[in-house]
């Protein structure tokens, strides 16, 4: 199945099975805004729990916070968002479509990278087990030439973007002969900067109201509460503050389903540390965060690090953990060494000293920060894209979501074989017992086969069937989602078997 077709099927599956709906659909929807359905909200909450517990419960020196969405407008001046939170946009005059200029250039580089990978794959098939990929990449003329092209493009892009040379950015697009994906033409406008923050008013009378912003990130709520948390929690460096919350960006080029939205949710942790130790902790959190992803059992070959060519104004090092989505490798999490930029600027703009007294060195200083930031919605899409499987089985085909059991929306479904003879009553008794521990479903409609297929499609790890023999011997049939193997087990063992499969403990032990 081609990746574009897979992505379309995944989007349709999300709607059909109650994971994600277009927002305001009965009013023809709202672009780049989505609602999470009954199964989607469960999966989303489970992702957040996995992240939160791995950060706050497993680390003695990391605590949580929930800061407000509305914040004093000076905060966004101090953070640089008012002056520097812009995207370089370019329009195609023929299609009337608008694009991020840097994304057009990055997509062009990705096409060259695809050419390199095709050359490598051809050579691998040709030479077999004797193939030395590293040597091939260093010596093959076509690969070397394309690598040099990518590096030249990257240098020009970084130079023009960092210097604010918008005409230079446009000229690079022209020189590379990049065409509009819709019209196929190269009829481009000039490049313009567009600020991504949403503005609103606070106040009882419109003419006296003050302009404030919907927060474009959750990090600043952590920084302005640094001293509150440090003092009340008696925290010693190094320590972290974690937060999950909504953020808002007026994305002009919102695309790829829930990958880029105007309202989204972030899971961020700011780790405060001594100046000079930032690179040690930067490398630590890079490795720790990748372990967190791989513990879920997703294909490790689909992850990679991508070091930033153009650093943000606050960073001295930054990289992304990228995942190979159906539309290519894209960022799912960022790790950034933010230096002391944020606390220093908030000290300057607020007039309050955001310093830490170090009892070991007997001095006051502004801590440095290493940040980990992951999008809940992107992580949701990663899980769904990894889980969606179409496979042939004895009675035809089935669609199954191989969601990591700990994250599955429904952990166990309970079925009576038929709707009479006391089977529904026993099934309900079992359900009422185990629902105290797990999110469960009861289903008595249609054949057992159809009920299995429904729960395969939402990723339920186990299905329990109550039959007439269950009334006599206290045994039920348990079916595994992934293997479809069925076995008879005592009713009093259901909880232990399900717990072993769906517990977060197995994930946490790998961290």
From TrEMBL:
Coiled coil feature spans: none
CDD domains the record matches: GlyRS-like_core, GlyRS_anticodon
Subcellular localization: Cytoplasm
Reaction equations catalysed: tRNA(Gly) + glycine + ATP = glycyl-tRNA(Gly) + AMP + diphosphate
Record keywords, A-Z: Aminoacyl-tRNA synthetase, ATP-binding, Cytoplasm, Ligase, Nucleotide-binding, Protein biosynthesis
Summary of subunit composition and partner proteins: Homodimer.
UniProt family annotation: Belongs to the class-II aminoacyl-tRNA synthetase family.
Name under which the protein is recorded: Glycine--tRNA ligase
């Amino acid at each position: 199945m081609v990746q574009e077709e897979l992505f379309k099927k995944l989007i349709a599956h999300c709607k059909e099975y109650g994971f994600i709906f277009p927002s305001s659909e009965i009013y023809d929807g709202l672009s780049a805004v989505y609602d999470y359905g009954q199964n989607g909200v469960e999966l989303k909450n489970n992702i957040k729990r996995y992240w939160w517990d791995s950060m706050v419960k497993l680390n003695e020196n990391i605590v949580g916070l929930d800061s407000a969405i509305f914040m004093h407008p000076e905060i966004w001046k101090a953070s640089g968002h008012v002056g520097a939170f812009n995207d370089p946009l370019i329009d195609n005059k023929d299609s009337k479509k608008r694009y991020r200029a840097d994304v057009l250039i990055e997509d062009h580089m990705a096409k060259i990278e695809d050419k390199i990978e095709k050359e490598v794959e051809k050579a691998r098939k040709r030479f077999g087990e004797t193939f030395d990929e590293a040597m091939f990449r260093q010596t093959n003329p076509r690969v070397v030439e394309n690598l040099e092209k990518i590096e030249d493009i990257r240098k020009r892009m970084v130079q023009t973007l960092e210097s604010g040379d918008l005409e230079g950015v446009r000229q690079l697009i022209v020189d590379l002969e990049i065409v509009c994906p819709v019209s196929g033409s190269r009829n481009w406008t000039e490049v313009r900067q567009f600020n991504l923050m949403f503005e609103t008013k606070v106040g009882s009378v419109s003419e006296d109201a003050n302009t404030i912003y919907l927060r474009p990130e959750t990090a600043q709520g952590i920084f302005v509460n640094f001293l509150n948390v440090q003092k009340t929690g008696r925290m010693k460096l190094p320590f972290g503050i974690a937060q999950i919350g909504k953020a808002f960006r007026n994305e002009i080029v919102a695309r790829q389903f829930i990958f880029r939205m105007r309202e989204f949710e972030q899971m961020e942790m700011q780790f405060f540390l001594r100046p000079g130790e930032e690179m040690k902790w930067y490398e630590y959190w890079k490795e720790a965060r990748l372990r967190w992803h791989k513990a879920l059992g997703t294909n490790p070959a689909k992850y990679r690090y991508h070091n930033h060519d153009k650093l943000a104004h606050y960073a001295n090092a930054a990289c992304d953990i990228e995942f190979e989505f159906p539309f290519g490798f894209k960022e799912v999490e960022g790790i950034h060494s933010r230096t002391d930029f944020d606390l220093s600027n908030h000290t300057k703009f607020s007039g309050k000293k955001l310093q830490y007294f170090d009892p070991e060195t007997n001095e006051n200083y502004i801590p440095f920060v290493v940040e980990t930031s992951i999008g809940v919605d992107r992580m949701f899409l990663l899980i769904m894209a990894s889980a969606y499987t179409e496979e042939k089985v004895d009675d035809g085909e089935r669609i199954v979501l191989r969601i990591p059991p700990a994250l599955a929306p429904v952990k166990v479904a309970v079925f009576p074989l038929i709707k009479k003879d006391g089977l529904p009553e026993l099934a309900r008794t079992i359900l009422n017992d185990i629902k105290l521990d797990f999110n469960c479903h009861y289903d008595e409609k249609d054949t057992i086969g159809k009920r299995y297929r429904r729960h395969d499609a939402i990723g339920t790890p186990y299905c329990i069937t109550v039959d007439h023999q269950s009334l006599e011997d206290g045994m039920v049939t348990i079916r595994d989602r992934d293997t479809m193997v069925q076995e008879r087990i005592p009713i009093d063992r259901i909880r232990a078997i399900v717990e072993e499969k769906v517990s977060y403990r197995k994930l946490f032990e790998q961290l």
